[in-house]
Amino acid sequence: MSRPSPARSGLVFAGPTVRALQADDFANPGMLWVERGQKLWSEPVGPSRRSCGSCHADALRGAAASLPAVDAATGRLVNLESRIQACQAQRQGIEPAAHESDALLALSAYVAYQSRGMPVRVEVDGPARPYFERGRASYHRRIGQLNLACSHCHDANWGRRLGPETISQGHGVGYPAYRLEWQALGSLHRRFRSCLSGVRAEMLPQGHPDYLALELYLAWRASSLPVETPAVRR
Ligand code: HEC
Ligand code: HEC
């Protein structure tokens, strides 16, 4: 199994404007979502008026660095977003926030921000193994009209130019991230969709099991890189 060595964050391949925005929390537009997430975190909601903070100490510092992970109760692979949705439904008794909604982006940005600077470290053995293998297979599978796999760009050609962009190693450690092209914060799965549309491949909805498996494989590839949320990208 190969992974880029040394692993380099997408930030290394970004231009000076993007780097400057990410380096300064007052200029980083992604911090607006982190602030909104902080408010939502402490809001009592649902029939039992429980806030996230009433159950979770220190806003789950470190949790984002070890997700996705297999949920022991269901045996399913869950990422940060699906974890949050499960707590909204089961622990707060409210309708879970939709994928890519402002509320889910804000909460996931806030929780991931608590792990900023902590190295990514996910479990890929035991019950996680089949998900890992599934993610690895889809990372290397040729897809779309251009018949390219993720690996063709992010393993074999990182550092090269593609139109106006420099191809990075394709790590997800900065997500949810603010993209200038989106003029908004967006999830890692939204970024997957951008790459898939780039090679004219079929796109799946955010939260799809295939994307979760891919996210696990990417987290393994990124092992040791620090969480950067909220990253800024082009
Ligand atoms: C044709 C080349 C190409 C293919 C194939 C491709 N990507 Fe990308 N990808 C890019 C480019 C260009 C960018 C934007 C610059 C960058 O950050 O690498 C990007 C960005 C990303 C990023 C964001 C990196 C960051 O630091 O913000 C991730 C994650 C990613 N790709 C994952 C994938 C995955 C997973 C696949 C396969 C499903 C894939 N890509 C397929 C070209 C490609
Ligand atoms: C009534 C208590 C309760 C509330 C309220 C609650 N949670 Fe949880 N949460 C839990 C418990 C218990 C777990 C652990 C495992 C489980 O659910 O299986 C958990 C797990 C998590 C995890 C995974 C942690 C890890 O280490 O992987 C995240 C992330 C999370 N919650 C986020 C939230 C957010 C965000 C909110 C508010 C929208 C919230 N939770 C509201 C009880 C709660």
The N- and C-terminal alpha carbons lie at a distance of 30 Å
Say how many strands there are. 7
Q: What is the C-level CATH assignment of the largest domain?
A: Mainly Alpha
The portion of residues forming beta strands comes to: 5-15%
Low-confidence stretches: none
Summarize the main sheet.
3 strands, mixed
Rg value? 17 Å
CATH third-tier fold name of the largest domain = Cytochrome Bc1 Complex, Chain D, domain 2
Portion of residues within helices:
25-40%
The residue-averaged pLDDT reads: 97
Shape: globular
How would you classify the helix and strand content by structural class? mainly alpha
What's the helix-strand series? Answer: HHHEEHHHHEEEEHHE
Biggest sheet, spatial arrangement of strands:
6-5-7
What ligand species are in this complex?
Answer: heme C
Per DSSP, the total helix count is 9
Q: What number of domains?
A: 2
The CATH architecture of the largest domain comes to Orthogonal Bundle
Report the CATH superfamily of the largest domain: Cytochrome c-like domain
